[in-house]
UniProtKB/TrEMBL annotation:
Keywords: Ubl conjugation pathway. Transmembrane segments: none annotated. InterPro entries: ThiF/MoeB/HesA, ThiF_NAD_FAD-bd, Ubiquitin-activating_enz. This is NEDD8-activating enzyme E1 regulatory subunit. It comes from the Eukaryota. Signal peptide: none annotated. SUPFAM superfamilies: Activating enzymes of the ubiquitin-like proteins. Pathway: Protein modification; protein neddylation. It comes from Dimargaris cristalligena. Belongs to the ubiquitin-activating E1 family. ULA1 subfamily.
Length: 333
């Protein structure tokens, strides 16, 4: 089956970049318990690249009552080997292998096991002493460690990770119009339109961005000291725009009225983004710094030196009710 069809729903969530990261991952499970097997199943189904199970035990009858990835015919066989075969049957794109070794001894000097060979370590039913050693090894090489256990309806999950950064660009639900801080070319463009134009055809082709900005500028002239528009004032403007419609089919005025509440917000850097830009990691760049912090530093420099305290403007504008000439002009601003 084509990967696009197989992974259609998850690709909508994390896109091709996220799927590529997943397919490059090699996961190691210590002990093929029911909890560990189920956890690994949820990584095999979306398409990790490979997995390894380290387990020295044989399948017991008690395993068949709680682990869906062993059967009665597997009793007496290596547990890790049986689980690998059943998990591989869920997704032929994923490779799996079994290491016949006691997880408690994998960190001994004579062991060939190395945590740096894996993208993630999942540990179940390991002793406290072994987990302490394992955590130290994972921390040293920067490999995430997940420790999980269950007992009936009770379970716990512990995660150790140095830092996890994600760079993924996507468009939000609304355009970044910044009508409270319009750039000069947008202001010049908006001034070319007359909301009282007697030509009904031209009136029905005025872009909703123009309508909103002209109403916002009128509000600013009447409220020069107000820092921002209140919700009540936005509703008043929405009602005024609705009344300005000359007939029910003027979709451009409908668009303007529909977008009043978000489009006339005060432009600011979101607090989570500002927290990243102010992080000391932006000042401590080295040749080994992750791309995330290099980009964060570049973003901060732009905000401080060129952006007038604001983030870069994407320039993306969705389709709207207007003629082709107006839409192309807006896109080229």
């Amino acid at each position: 089956m084509d990967k696009t069809r197989r992974y259609d729903r998850q690709l909508r969530l994390w896109k091709a970049h996220g799927q590529a990261r997943l397919e490059a991952a090699h996961i190691c499970l210590l002990n093929g318990t029911a909890t560990g097997s189920e956890t690994l199943k949820n990584l095999v189904l979306p398409g990790i690249g490979a997995f390894t199970i380290v387990d020295h035990r044989l399948v017991a009858e008690t395993d068949t009552g709680c682990n869906f990835f062993v059967t009665k015919s597997d009793i007496g066989q290596p547990r890790g080997k049986a689980i690998v075969e059943h998990l591989k049957g869920l997704n032929e794109e994923v490779s799996g292998r079994w290491v016949n070794q006691n997880p408690e001894t994998i960190l001994d000097k004579d062991s060939s096991f190395s945590v740096s060979d894996y993208s993630l370590i999942i540990a179940t039913q390991c002793s406290s002493e072994m987990l302490i050693r394992l955590a130290a090894n994972c921390q040293e090489v920067g490999v995430p460690l997940v420790v999980c256990e269950t007992a009936g309806f009770i379970g716990y999950l512990r995660i150790q990770i140095q830092e996890h950064t994600i760079i993924e660009s996507y468009s939000g639900p609304n355009e970044d119009l910044r009508l409270d801080r319009p750039f000069p070319t947008l202001t010049e463009f908006v001034q070319k339109f007359d909301l009282n134009d007697p030509d009904s055809m031209a009136h029905g082709q005025i872009p909703y961005i123009v309508i909103l900005l002209q109403y916002y500028q009128a509000w600013q002239r009447n409220n020069p000291e107000a820092p921002s528009m209140t919700l009540k004032e936005k509703k008043v403007i929405r009602e005024a725009i609705t009344r300005a419609m000359r007939h029910p089919d003027e979709e451009n005025f409908e668009e303007a009225a529909k977008n009043v509440l978000w489009a006339l917000n005060t432009t600011q850097i979101p607090p989570p983004v500002r927290e990243i830009l102010e992080n000391p990691r932006c000042d401590q760049l080295t040749e080994n710094s992750p791309d995330f912090w290099v980009l964060a530093r570049a973003m901060r420099d732009f905000v401080q030196q060129e952006g007038d305290g604001m983030l870069p403007l994407s320039g993306h504008v969705s389709d709207m009710k207007t003629d082709t000439a107006n839409f192309v002009a807006i896109q080229s601003l």
